[in-house]
Amino acid sequence: MPVTYDLIVIGGGHNGLVTAAYVARKGLTVLVLERREMLGGACTTEELWPGYKVSTAAYVNSLLRPEIIRDLELKRHGFEMLPRNPSSFTPFPDGRSLLLGPDKALTHREISKFSSKDADALPKYEAMLERVADFLEPTLVMTPPNPWSLRPGNLVQLARLGLGFLKLGHDGQKAVEILAGAATPILDRWFEAEQLKVTLATDAIIGAMASPSMPGTAYVLFHHVMGECDGVRGVWGYVRGGMGGISNAIASAAREAGAEIRTNAEVAKILSRNGTVQGVVLRDGTELHATRVASGVDANVTFLKLMGNGDLPSEFVDAVRHIDYSSASCKINLALGELPDFKAVPGTTVGPQHRGTIHISPTMEYIERAYDDAKYGRPSQAPIIEATIPSALDDTVAPPGKYVMSMFTQYFPYKLAPGLSLAEEREKYADRCVDLMSEYAPNFKRAVIARQVLTPVDLEERFGLTGGNIMQGVMSLSSLSFMRPVPGYADYRTPIRNLYLCGAATHPGGGVMGACGFNAAREIIRDARR
Ligand SMILES: Cc1cc2nc3c(=O)[nH]c(=O)nc-3n(C[C@H](O)[C@H](O)[C@H](O)COP(=O)(O)OP(=O)(O)OC[C@H]3O[C@@H](n4cnc5c(N)ncnc54)[C@H](O)[C@@H]3O)c2cc1C
Fold first, then answer.
1. Among 174, 202, 203, 483, which is disulfide-ready with 224 (CB 3.0 to 4.6 Å)?
2. Ligand 1 pocket member 244 (CB < 6 A)
């Protein structure tokens, strides 16, 4: 008789692993099947070149839910955060620069170089965001209510949300603007210095095929302030050993709880009979049976590639087909022989300019123009760069005296204009990014030893992310909460009985939060008890 698992998890991304760990802790038999040779999905560390350990996709952490760190004892399983101070450095073409970070006095001093009014306004802006976060953050670990259902539990949950919103008072309008609006008008209202606005604005476009003047970007901006690092709100840090340190710690906790985890195990098909899931078939033809299956892969792959359309209601298939996976993010991973020597803050030994995120985008108009190129299918002539050098704080990720750099860049559209070749544009764009950084740090081009360029098409191939969308689907209001992944199916269940989604395709979406996996596990355990 073949073994029947209580739960098979498709995909060993960090969310799938969280689901596996929580469900296994309840004594259920769990099997995780990961397509790649390593775990973590978009939260992973790969030794791209001997001695260089690279966070090939996600590169900084803040969002990972504290309850998961605590429940799964992730620190005991090897997870360690390296907080960054300062957290960002923006050099400008005129030779000036801006450092921001958790050190409030330093941040005030730095902003005052450009505007003393803005230096005083920043703490008030942050306090406003915190008040809105106090309302929204608890919803991250809740299953969204279904506004189309009159079930009593559902109505109570909706009423609770309404009450929380009422408590926001005048901040309620701000919360709505954050959920639906554009980042630029909010930043314009609070600040006058272009240098501060542009540094903050890059968070509003991370992973979005949008410019900060477009609706929806305020939420992306906000999404990035909802985390914490070792208990300090809004602080982002590196993970010792790279982002794979998170996934590996979760995997270790899952194994300790009894979960079995297989790599190089690609699921080719989800099996169902009479509307109920039965198990999966692997690429090599092996059939594996389970009472429940949870997919950490995006909705497009789960429903349109791993299932026959005939198994699903046509309106559901239609809704999945219309999920927005647009993306223009390109990740460039580099091995460096020396640190960038910035004109604005010279030096090739580790300094404050190397510890945080290095922003290359001098004005708001610059970002708009970079987006304009992508709108018509062309990679930006002058891209936006967010660069990090984790080896400035972590000596385990590069050989002695050498460094790794992550460049998260935009915009490189998934769909190129007719006549453009991906192979050519990929290299030309990466050259432009290296040249651009060299304008601010003239030794940079010489410092590059090796590079890996991951356009959205490469992100799709490598990590299984449809369209190269880094969040498993855009994070705009119409795709959040009770509308994620599609309206009516936000409770982690699907039209197939005992088939669940547990990855970033679900509420609360992308980012290394673990919340999707955590919420899905709660629903699976609830159903299993029934
Ligand atoms: C370039 C990039 C940069 C990012 N930067 C950050 C950042 O700095 N900080 C942050 O918080 N977030 C960041 N993100 C977002 C974040 O990494 C993701 O939202 C998150 O990791 C998604 O996790 P997941 O477990 O839901 O899904 P995934 O990580 O997508 O996991 C899905 C897993 O399923 C596997 N899989 C796919 N198909 C199959 C199959 N048929 N059979 C078996 N397995 C399969 C995949 O290989 C993968 O391991 C970034 C993402 C990208 C791509």
1. 203
2. no
